[in-house]
Specification:
6 helices; alpha/beta; pyruvate-formate lyase- activating enzyme; 17% strand; single chain; 10 strands
C-alpha cells in the first residue's frame, strides 16, 4: 500500500530520508517537526534520532532509509508521489550517492510522477548535473516571501521536465518573483495554533502573475488553526490547475 496523503496536490508520499533542520522563516512552524514528535512517542523507528535542538528537535534528526528505496517499484497503480514530505532530499547531510539512488528508483518507477521539493536550492543547482532527470520527475523549491525568490533562480538551472514553486506558507508578498521557466505554482497559508495570517492581496497578485505568464496556479489553503479552517476558495472559486504536461497525460 502507498502512503496515502491528504495533501491536495499529490496522492502519496515516499520518505527515503526523514528529519531536517530549520533554514528560513518558512520552517518556524514546520508540520513535519510537530508530527515527528508524535511519531517518536509512538515508537516509530524512523523518528528516534534527535536533531540539533537549535534547528530541529526530538525525533527530527536526519536519517537515511535504504530499506524503503524500492517501495515505489511495488506500487502498480500510477500516482503522483511527493518525495520526502518529512525531510529534504537535498539536505547537506544526504550524500550525493544516496540522492543518485533515489533518482534511479524514480526513473525505473516510470508509472508514477514524482514531485521533489527543497528549500536547499543552492545545493540542488550545484549537483543537478550529477543526476539523470527523467520526464516523470518534477522539481520544485519552496519560497515563503520575497527574500527567498532567489530559489527560483537556482531552480531554473535544473533540467527537470516540470519546475514548480511551493509558495507555502506564504508569509509575505513576492513582487520580485520571476516566473520565466516555471511551470506550476502552489500557494497556501500556514496552519496550526501559531499560524501567520495570509493576506488576500498577496495570493491574488501571485495568481494574476501566473495568469499573465501562463503558469498553472494551485491554491492549497488559506490556513488557520487547522489546514481546512479557512477553506480553499479565492474570489469565489477553487484553483486546482496542474502543469500542462500533467493535463496532457490524462
Amino acid at each position: 500500500m502507498a502512503d496515502r496523503t491528504a495533501i491536495e496536490w499529490t496522492q502519496a508520499t515516499w520518505n527515503p530520508t526523514t528529519g531536517c533542520d530549520r533554514v528560513s522563516p518558512g520552517c518556524d512552524h514546520c508540520y513535519a517537526l510537530t508530527l515527528s514528535k508524535r511519531l517518536k512517542a509512538m515508537g516509530q523507528p524512523k523518528y528516534q534520532v534527535d536533531g540539533d535542538s537549535r534547528t530541529s528537535g526530538p525525533g527530527f534528526g536526519l536519517s537515511l532509509h535504504e530499506d524503503v528505496l524500492d517501495t515505489p517499484l511495488r506500487w502498480v497503480q500510477p500516482r503522483y508521489v511527493f518525495v520526502n514530505s518529512m525531510s529534504d532530499l537535498f539536505h547537506e547531510r544526504v550524500p550525493v550517492a544516496f540522492i543518485v539512488s533515489v533518482f534511479e528508483v524514480m526513473e525505473r518507477a516510470d508509472q508514477h510522477t514524482f514531485q521533489v521539493l527543497t528549500k536547499r536550492s543552492k545545493r540542488l543547482a550545484a549537483i543537478a548535473s550529477s543526476l539523470r532527470w527523467p520526464p516523470n520527475v518534477w522539481m520544485g523549491v519552496s519560497i515563503e516571501s520575497d527574500r527567498y525568490t532567489f530559489r527560483a533562480d537556482h531552480l531554473r538551472q535544473v533540467p527537470a521536465a516540470v519546475r514548480f514553486l511551493s509558495v507555502e506558507p506564504m508569509i509575505g508578498p513576492v513582487p520580485s518573483l520571476e516566473l520565466g521557466g516555471i511551470d506550476w505554482v502552489i500557494a497556501g497559508g500556514e496552519s496550526g495554533p501559531d499560524a501567520r495570517v495570509l493576506c488576500r492581496e498577496w495570493v491574488a497578485d501571485l495568481r494574476d502573475a501566473c495568469r499573465d505568464h501562463e503558469v498553472a496556479f494551485f491554491f492549497k489553503q488559506w490556513g488557520g488553526r487547522t489546514p481546512k479552517a479557512g477553506g480553499r476558495h479565492l474570489e469565489g472559486r477553487t484553483w486546482d490547475e496542474m502543469p500542462r504536461v500533467a493535463v496532457a497525460a490524462r
